[in-house]
Amino acid sequence: MKEIIIATKNKGKVNEFKEMLNGSGYQVTSLLDYPDSVDVEESGVTFVENAILKAEAISKHYRKITIADDSGLSIDYLNGAPGVFSARYAGEEKNDAANLSKVLTELKGVPEAKRSARFHCALAIASPEKETFTVEGICEGMITEKMEGENGFGYDPIFKPRGREVTMAQLPKEEKNTISHRADALKKLEKGIAQYF
Ligand SMILES: O=c1nc[nH]c2c1ncn2[C@H]1C[C@H](O)[C@@H](COP(=O)(O)OP(=O)(O)OP(=O)(O)O)O1
Ligand SMILES: [Mg+2]
């Protein structure tokens, strides 16, 4: 089967890509299958730049077709923070629980009307032979006042997608994978993947 490496060690992302590409005919691997892989520095100032950095470094190293995902949460009341710093918001050690607590503290007492936010996802596909291609997806919503739900990962327990009454972490995974920023981006990329093989 044709292999696509997802250039991430984030288990949450890996699971979602495997679910969403299930039945597509591609064998989906990730850096969890390549544990000796180098850590790529996310030095870009946009999600797209970081996705390109990760996809190109890994595709060059393994000489395989690679998709990288750079994503994060942008909160209007915080002028777009944590943005590209979402994973490292409460410190370099990338702690989801600490990141959520930091956001909830910063939004303490802020009324519902001012709690709007959106998830962003940039995907880059790279190959040793072809030019890199990128897409972006978003998911609109708002920040809740407390954490709820066990599904998903990252900021899901404090993010209520628009049109839903529960957090992303309370939705079944099939539903998250229909409405998420990652699903939105992947829909835009999917048809183009075949051209890389
Ligand atoms: O669907 C999501 N649901 C909740 N939170 C999410 C989601 N998607 C991204 N996020 C958050 C997690 C992390 O705080 C940051 C991604 O950071 P980002 O650098 O892209 O990923 P990462 O460092 O965990 O793994 P890697 O760079 O190896 O792909 O945004
Ligand atoms: Mg990262």
From TrEMBL:
Cofactor: Mg(2+)
Family according to the record: Belongs to the HAM1 NTPase family.
Reaction(s) this enzyme catalyzes, per UniProt: dITP + H2O = dIMP + diphosphate + H(+); ITP + H2O = IMP + diphosphate + H(+); XTP + H2O = XMP + diphosphate + H(+)
Binding-site residues, Mg(2+): 41, 70
Main function: Pyrophosphatase that catalyzes the hydrolysis of nucleoside triphosphates to their monophosphate derivatives, with a high preference for the non-canonical purine nucleotides XTP (xanthosine triphosphate), dITP (deoxyinosine triphosphate) and ITP. Seems to function as a house-cleaning enzyme that removes non-canonical purine nucleotides from the nucleotide pool, thus preventing their incorporation into DNA/RNA and avoiding chromosomal lesions.
Documented EC number(s): 3.6.1.66
Enzyme category, top tier: hydrolase
Assembly notes: Homodimer.
Keyword Magnesium: yes
Cofactor note: Binds 1 Mg(2+) ion per subunit.
Residues the record marks as active site: 70 (proton acceptor)
Protein name as it appears in the record: dITP/XTP pyrophosphatase
Positions bound to substrate: 8-13, 71, 153-156, 176, 181-182
Keywords attached to this entry: Hydrolase, Magnesium, Metal-binding, Nucleotide metabolism, Nucleotide-binding
Protein's UniProt keywords contain Magnesium: yes
GO molecular function, one term: ITP diphosphatase activity
